[in-house]
Design goal:
Layout: H1 16-29, H2 34-52, E1 57-67, H3 73-83, E2 88-95, E3 100-110, H4 111-122, E4 127-136, H5 139-142
Antiparallel strand pairs: 1-3, 1-4, 2-3
Bound molecules: nickel (II) ion.
The site of nickel (II) ion has 4 residues, from strand 2.
Length: about 140
Amino acid sequence: MRKSDPLIRFGVSMEQSLLKEFDSLCAEKGYTTRSEAIRDMIRNLLIEEELENENTEGVGTLTLVYNHHQRELEEKLTDYQHRHLQSIISTLHIHLSHHLCLEVMLLKGKAKNIKAIADGLVATKGVKHGKLVLTATGKTKES
Ligand code: NI
């Protein structure tokens, strides 16, 4: 929110039962006011919509869990990162157990490219679980 952005109040009509469900959800998520919950929902929707545009500049974190003993997997994942070094800007590796590794990668670039790279990594044989969290940097709109 820009500093000069005034707050506008507006009325919303909805069914009582729907509002009741919304209020319980707000309480569960720790929102102190409906306004803050609605603002977050709207921001999320706007970012999701923005990320549909393939030229949107984004940043993302990709979490991967894989078996350390899977043959050649670590080499494949490292090789993949070297091929996309412009987009994968940081990696955190944690040895979870004797067998399992956790890797968190930070990706930057066009939303379309980030998604494609993440898909490629998640689909690599031996990766047990992978999830990308992507958000927009807001640069596309500003520039
Ligand atoms: Ni490890």
